[in-house]
Amino acid sequence: MSASENIQVPAPAIRSKPLLLRHLPYFIGVAIVVALAARMQFDGYVHNILMQATTFSIAVFGLSVVLGLCGQINLAQAAFFGFGAYAVGIGTTDWHLSFWLCLVAGSVIALLAGAFLGASTLRLGGHYLAMVTISFQQIVTLVMINAIWLTHGPDGVSNIGRPALFQSSQSYLAFCVAALGIVGYLVWHLPDTRLGRAMRAVRDNELAAGVNGIDVFRTKVYAFAVCAALGGLAGGLFAGGFAYVSPDQFSFAESIVFLTMSLLGGVASPIGSAIGTGLLILIPEWLRFLKSVPGLYLAIYGLSVILIIRFMPDGIWGFVSNAFTRLRARAKAPPAVAALQLRPATTGGNIVLEVTGLSKHFGGLKAVDGVDIAVRRGGVHALIGPNGSGKTTTLNVLSGLYKATSGKIVLDGTDITNMAPHQRTAAGLGRTFQNIRLFRSMTALENVEIGAERPGNTMIGKGDDALTERAMEALTFVGLGSRANELISSFSYGHQRLIEIARALASNPTLLLLDEPAAGLNSTEKLELHELLKRIAAQGLTILIIDHDMTLVSEAAQHITVLNFGRRIADGESLAVLRHPDVVSAYLGSE
Ligand code: ADP
Ligand code: MG
To answer: I want to staple 577 with a disulfide (CB 3.0 to 4.6 A). Which of 9, 416, 501, 560 is the partner?
Structure first.
């Protein structure tokens, strides 16, 4: 952390062109492909393959959102696809509704079903989610087969109409390609929006996402709903393209095909989705000549999919783009920014954090037992105690990762005892973890942006540029501004700690909780950390720090609370507490 990096320099605003203008080439490209699709004469076979690849890709885009961005499994995408397909099928034939209305209705029905399924199950962990989506898929299939009055049963729905504007199969294909281009653009840019960043944070580390102000549950439900809606849209387009739908097209096996497509191409990006979809449709066609030997075709098909996934775990596109990211991180020099301002809110009184009678019991173990802590505004308050004395547990209860067994927590005049982690963060709590919890698939800058974005952060203006600027200021403050665009894995352990601190600082917290920030650092890094803490405290930010390093604690903290076996054994002004006989015996062993 060099001192020169923290000198105040005039801030050149980080400005960028409007998104749509920057991506004009993309839309010109899409327009050319659409024009080609409209003009070229394909034979029926090629046309069908293109139609299938286009509509399936949109459904697989959905999986790249829910699985790739947000890390949640959905084994019912074919069911959502079916919602859209049947809405257009039944709506245009039996009910004589307009194609457009049916297309929208199908997507909305899928969206609502996805949101409902997500809201009722996403509080459960991974395996449960998989099981529930499989069950949902099976139920939908059963309804499609048995609700004959509505779905025509196993016979399916035929003679499905198309919009008057795109009657010919050529023009309809061109329309679907245009839809693919637009949806692809939206999905491609989703990761750089607030919602997209939240999804990636949830995927990388749910706990850290929560304490950085993200509503984890709501983010997952949104991801699920977006995925389902894209499935519905794709299904509606599919029904118009093939004019016929039947239950076997939307079975569990199809959901697995969608999943394989997305894993094969690369689950993290719509480009991967399109590649995977194209390949999985084409490979069987390429292997058609093998069909004379029974079984051989399937074996080769399965083997090639397994080989690709084995040697490119991030999918084909993930493999390519990882290489790109590494190159880009080295090339891009981040702009200079102004010095970080920490301006904690000053609404409450002299006491920023008031904890009374706080307990956390794990079964019979009283990890924290009736602890009182009062943290004064604008100082460094240390929480110390031997290993296992309940320090981390106290912090986890404060930040809402554990629910208190009893007691009351008041932050800056607000009772936060029963709030969720992200609400406490919005109320002004920032924290770091004893075992570093960064978002590992993101760059240092993106990690810190998540912190800056916390609801209630009045330090940042509107828009992405202000966000980036605030994050750059925080990274520069901890001395890592020049490495903003590197991935987390390229930083040393000590630097990862600094990034975690920068992430918390960017959110401009009222109170900063640090859990053993010096753990695992070498002596130079410890000195640097010490100097950083001084600079943070100099700005008037209140810090509650857990540490083992007595030199650091005695020099940095004005006030110390000591825990032993979950109980508070001493509390008061630093030097007096460190001389307290109970404290000495707790640390050095009694007698
Ligand atoms: P410290 O941070 O002071 O070293 P901790 O707060 O991590 O101590 O742990 C205090 C006690 O609570 C320990 O005995 C630990 O084993 C126990 N503990 C912590 N978390 C849990 C948990 N999730 N479930 C059960 N016991 C826990
Ligand atoms: Mg601990």
So the answer is: 560
